[in-house]
Write the structure tokens for this entry.
Amino acid sequence: MEQPQIALGLAAMDSSGVLSPFSFPLRAKTEDDITLRILYCGICRTDLSTIKNEWGNATYPVVPGHEIVGIIIEVGCNVQKFKVGEKAGVGYPISACLSCDNCNHDCENYCPKLVPSFNSFHSDGTKTYGGFSNMIIVNEHFAVRIPENLPCNKIAPLMCAGITVYNPMKHHGLNKPGMHLGVVGLGGLGHMAVKFGKAYGMKVTVISTSTSKRKEAIENLGAEAFLLSSNADQMKVAKGTMDGIIDTVSAVHEISPLIALLKTYGKLIMLGAPNKPVELPIFPLMNGGKIVAGSMIGGMKDTQEMIDFAAEHNITAEVEVIGMNDVNVAMERLEKGDVRYRFVIDVAKNIANA
């Protein structure tokens, strides 16, 4: 019997969220699998929430990470999409049934049997470990091709942050030139929404609680306008001007003022995941035919489309690259919002003695 490959990574052992060196066996390879040597992995707020068990679903040990870019070192005999030596990306989904209605419509992200790339279990009971490690095995269906013109460290966050904003913009029609897009929160997701909006030729307004984000939004990211959400006069002037709003904020916050910014039939898309319910005012929705919707990542077809669109328009994330030895400090900074705009781990750096 073939001996399993051993991967090296960082794992949280309890809800303290402290990450420490951890080795684990990779699952057995199948004929449809590729093996990736991980080069870079982004750090998402979901990683932090999971290792600290904020949502009550952590199954320790947890090796987080679902914004993965690597180089293929092995392919199964049935693999069609990839060759050894090519680069590939892996995001949050790592398995699904591929036979339900959602899967048949390229919405694997909504499959009832979706298996996340970490903190979960395959159908055979083996545990999934994420990208804070040096290797991963994945079915080729759940990997995407990475174009050569994109820097791997800056493209890794697109495997989650990029598709998370691209998917609802596409499926809710918020991707047409001349439309007015609001973006709530200028973090990992928010800055990607601004970049995609600009690439579509939209007018983009950033909405934030912090005046310090104004310069970043307008001068560095090219947004046309900035709204301070606590400024009643600014919010009043902007009332009824936006075709859609991408809300990336994970903290509990009022959405009534955001609904007021929408035009008739405007759409508010919620991407954050507050740990407490938000209040949904019904009358403002009725008075204008407005919509509040949720969205979670995207299917594999849309993820590849998003990466190709990013390559065509030179869209990458703004990142701070760190080594494996720096991850715990990065997690502390992320919890304080001290990152512009995504930490990305150079996995090869310090992996042997992380």
About this structure: The chain has a mean pLDDT of 95. The longest helix spans residues 300-313. The radius of gyration is 20 Å.
